[in-house]
Write a structure and sequence with these properties.
The longest helix is centred in the last third of the chain and has 13 residues. The strands form four sheets. The chain has a six-stranded mixed sheet, with no helix packed on it. A four-stranded mixed sheet has the order 8-10-9-14. A two-stranded parallel ribbon has the order 1-11. It contains five helices and 14 strands. The chain is globular and about 50 Å long. With about 300 residues, the protein is α/β, with parallel strands linked by helices. Helix 3 runs antiparallel to helix 4. The chain has two domains: about 190 residues, no CATH class; about 70 residues, no CATH class. Helix content is about 15%, strand content about 25%.
Length: about 300
């Protein structure tokens, strides 16, 4: 099996490690807005999402034909065009019904929002072919999601977990995105007029040592021992690359490739759902690792020092 290659260029902000990046001068302010206001239920409740409101990934090599696209919005660039498609492909559950389609040989990435295949036609509210080559692209794409950065960027996929390293920042939609401004690498303001919150594009990271990661893993219930390998890789990524605020949602969660396209791979990595002591894993796996005093905020990507 070919080795998984991290998409996008080395200078893509989400592919740059946090080790040499300055902390935001208002790090504590944004940390507290994240900790207390971003989750859906309780402070510090950051979930892992492998199911609804994330992204399945499909490949043109598995398409069965070319099908026409019809969109509700006027500005998507795929309206009236055709795209390789397989009627068996399913979007992620939830009203967003999102999907990623990739052509690795040509570096093409399509993003679909509220997509449904019906009567031989791909119906979507928003459907776009992202500009540039996703293998080397280093900037965003306005028509895609709240942050205005294409869907594949920052998505955790089972292939990289299996290889032992997530070498990029993660994607976190939250409840309290800011309605007055955004920061780089975001390319647009998603919801003008919302109350003051966390600007989309803001980056956070976790100040945690290998020893503290191992202590957290050792504290997990025996029933989820099979998830420790994934947890270790994820925790190191949250430390070494952090996460960006990418979208508005009902609560704070980190996005992994959706189960509808990657369920078999996630299952082999030990991520089948397990309920223990009132918690559900892997959804609640980060409890105990994510602590308020460990979270800090980084400057926007247009303030990163030159390498």
């Amino acid at each position: 099996m070919a080795r998984y290659v991290r998409p996008y260029g080395e200078k893509a902000p989400w592919n740059i490690p946090v080790s040499n990046l300055p902390r935001h001068p208002q790090s504590d302010l944004y940390r507290d807005r994240l900790w207390y206001d971003a989750p859906a239920s309780r402070s510090g409740n950051f979930n892992l999402n492998l199911w609804a409101y994330t992204y399945p990934v499909y490949y043109v090599s598995d398409a069965t034909g070319e099908y026409p696209v019809e969109t509700k919005w006027d500005w998507p660039n795929m309206n009236g065009k055709t795209v390789p498609w397989n009627p068996d492909w399913q979007p992620a559950p939830g009203t967003d019904a999102q999907m990623i389609l990739l052509d690795p040989e040509a570096g093409r990435e399509w993003n679909f929002w509220q997509v449904e295949f019906r009567d031989g036609v791909i119906h979507a509210s928003n459907a776009n072919l992202v500009d540039g080559d996703y293998r080397t692209k280093e900037d965003g794409f306005g028509p895609s999601r709240g942050i205005g950065v294409q869907y594949l960027a920052m998505l955790v996929r089972p292939e990289e977990v299996k290889q032992g390293e997530i070498a990029h920042a993660l994607s976190m939609p939250i409840r309290n995105t800011d309605g007055t401004h955004f920061v780089a690498p975001a390319t647009k303001l998603e919801h003008p007029g919302r109350p003051e919150g966390i600007p989309e594009g803001m980056r956070f990271a976790l100040d945690v040592t290998d020893e503290e990661i191992e202590e957290w893993l050792a504290s997990l219930p025996e029933e989820v021992a099979q998830m420790k390998g994934y947890g270790r890789v994820l925790a190191r990524a949250l430390r070494d690359y952090g996460w960006f605020i990418t979208d508005t949602s009902g609560g704070a969660h980190l996005q992994n490739e959706a189960w509808v396209s990657a369920g078999e791979e996630w299952s082999r990595l030990g991520l089948d759902t397990v309920a223990v002591g009132g918690k559900e894993y892997p959804r609640d796996l980060l409890d105990g690792l994510m602590r308020r005093e460990r979270v800090y905020t980084l400057v926007p990507s247009d303030q990163y020092p030159e390498p």
